[in-house]
Recover the amino acids of this structure.
C-alpha cells in the first residue's frame, strides 16, 4: 500500500514535468498560458513537498499550511484560470451577445463559489485540528467549484454546438476527472473522518494520475490536418448555386 | 453524514456527465453526413406565422374559440421552424469551423462571419422558443427577437457566397 501511494505521488508529477517540457518546446504556452502555469505550479508544489518531507519527516503546522492550504488555494486559482482560458477560446466572437454570455458565466461562477463555500463550511468537522478542517473544507469547495464550472462550460459548448479542437478537449476532461473524483473523496472524508483519509488520498492521487494520462494522450498526439477532404467543385454544386442566386434575386 | 454522502453521489454524477459531454463535444462528424441532416426553412412562411398584423386580422375575423385553435397551431408551427433553424445553424457552425482553418484569408474571414451569425441565431432561438410557447397561452405578447428571419436569410446568403470559394457539400441548396 505504501509503495502504491509513493508511486501515485511521484509518477504523475514526473509525467506532468514531461508534458510541460513538450508543451514549452512546442511553444504551446502562448496558446495555453494558464494551463502551462497550472502545470508549472503542480511541479513547484511537488518539489516543495519533497523538500519539506526530506527535511522534516514528520510534517509540522507550517508544512500543512503552506503545502496543504495555500497550495490548494493557488492550484484552484490556476485551475479556474485554465477554465476561463478555454471558455474564451470557445466564444471567439467579440460581440454584445458573447459579452452577455460571459456575464452569465461569471454570475454562475459566483453562484457556484457561494454554494461551495456554504456547503463546505457546513460539512466539515473531521478533526479537532483547525488546519485539517480548513484544508478539508477548502479542498471540497475547490473541487466543487472546478467541477461545477466545467459542467457549465461543457453544457454551453453543447448548447451552442461549438466543437472544441480535439487536442484541447483533453484539458477540461482531465481537470473534470481529477476534480470530480476529489469531490467524491473530500465528501467521503467529511462523512467518515480520519479513518477514511488514506483511501481518500489514494482516490485523489489515482484520479490525478488518470487526468495526467488523459492530458498526455490528447496533447501529445500529432494534430490531424483540419479542413475538408474534398477539394474542387462539381457541376451539381454550380447548378445549385445558380438556383440559389436566382432565388435570392427574385 | 447524509449531506456528505449526497455530495459524494453528486461527484460521481458530475464525473459521468463531464466524460459524456467531453466525448460528445469532440464528435465533429463528416460534412457530407451533416449536410444530409439539414432541413429547409421557408423564411417567408415563418415571417407570416409571427406577423402581428396577420394575428390581428385572424382575431378580427374568427370567433374566439377558432382564433385560439388557429393561433395555437400557428405558434407550434413557428416553434418548429425555429427548432429547424437552430439545428441548421448548429450544422453550419461545423462548416464555418472547417472554413476557418483554410489557408486562404478570404475563406477564413467568411468562415468567421458565418460562425458569428450561426451562434447568434442559436442564441436568438433560445430566446424565441419559450416566448412562442408563452404566446400560445397569451396571444399578442411580444414574441421578439424578430430579427431571426433576417438572421437566417443572412446566413443562407453567407453559405452561398462561401460556396463560391469553398466546398459546402450542397448545404446552400439544403437551407
Amino acid at each position: 500500500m505504501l509503495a502504491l501511494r509513493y508511486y501515485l505521488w511521484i509518477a504523475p508529477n514526473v509525467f506532468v514535468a514531461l508534458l510541460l517540457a513538450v508543451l514549452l518546446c512546442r511553444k504551446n504556452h502562448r496558446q495555453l498560458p494558464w494551463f502551462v502555469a497550472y502545470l508549472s505550479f503542480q511541479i513547484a508544489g511537488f518539489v516543495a513537498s519533497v523538500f519539506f518531507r526530506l527535511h522534516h519527516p514528520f510534517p509540522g503546522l507550517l508544512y500543512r499550511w503552506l503545502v496543504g492550504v495555500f497550495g490548494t488555494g493557488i492550484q484552484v486559482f490556476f485551475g479556474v484560470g485554465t477554465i476561463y482560458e478555454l471558455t474564451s477560446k470557445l466564444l471567439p466572437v467579440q460581440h454584445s451577445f458573447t459579452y452577455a454570455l460571459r456575464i452569465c458565466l461569471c454570475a454562475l461562477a459566483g453562484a457556484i463559489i457561494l454554494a461551495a463555500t456554504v456547503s463546505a463550511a457546513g460539512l466539515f468537522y473531521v478533526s479537532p485540528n483547525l488546519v485539517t478542517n480548513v484544508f478539508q473544507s477548502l479542498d471540497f469547495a475547490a473541487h466543487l467549484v472546478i467541477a461545477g464550472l466545467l459542467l457549465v462550460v461543457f453544457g454551453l459548448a453543447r448548447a451552442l454546438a461549438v466543437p472544441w479542437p480535439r487536442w484541447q478537449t483533453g484539458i477540461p476532461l482531465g481537470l473534470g476527472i481529477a476534480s470530480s473524483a476529489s469531490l467524491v473523496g473530500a465528501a467521503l472524508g467529511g462523512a467518515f473522518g480520519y479513518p477514511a483519509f488514506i483511501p481518500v488520498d489514494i482516490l485523489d492521487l489515482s484520479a490525478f494520475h488518470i487526468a495526467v494520462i488523459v492530458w498526455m494522450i490528447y496533447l501529445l498526439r500529432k494534430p490531424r490536418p483540419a479542413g475538408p477532404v474534398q477539394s474542387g467543385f462539381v457541376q451539381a454544386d454550380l447548378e445549385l448555386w445558380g438556383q440559389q442566386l436566382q432565388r435570392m434575386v427574385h | 453524514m447524509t449531506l456528505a454522502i449526497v455530495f459524494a453521489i453528486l461527484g460521481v454524477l458530475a464525473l459521468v456527465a463531464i466524460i459524456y459531454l467531453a466525448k460528445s463535444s469532440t464528435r465533429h462528424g463528416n460534412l457530407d453526413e451533416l449536410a444530409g441532416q439539414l432541413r429547409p426553412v421557408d423564411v417567408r412562411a415563418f415571417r407570416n406565422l409571427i406577423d402581428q398584423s396577420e394575428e390581428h386580422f385572424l382575431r378580427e375575423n374568427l370567433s374566439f374559440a377558432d382564433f385560439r385553435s388557429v393561433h395555437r397551431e400557428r405558434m407550434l408551427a413557428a416553434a418548429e421552424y425555429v427548432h429547424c433553424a437552430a439545428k441548421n445553424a448548429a450544422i453550419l457552425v461545423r462548416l464555418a469551423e472547417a472554413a476557418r482553418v483554410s489557408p486562404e484569408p478570404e475563406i477564413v474571414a467568411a468562415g468567421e462571419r458565418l460562425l458569428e451569425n450561426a451562434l447568434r441565431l442559436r442564441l436568438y432561438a433560445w430566446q424565441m422558443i419559450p416566448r412562442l410557447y408563452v404566446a400560445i397561452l397569451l396571444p399578442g405578447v411580444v414574441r421578439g427577437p424578430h430579427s431571426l428571419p433576417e438572421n437566417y436569410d443572412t446566413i443562407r446568403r453567407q453559405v452561398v457566397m462561401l460556396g463560391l470559394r469553398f466546398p459546402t457539400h450542397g448545404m446552400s441548396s439544403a437551407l
In short: Chain B has a mean pLDDT of 84. Chain B has one domain: 30-174.
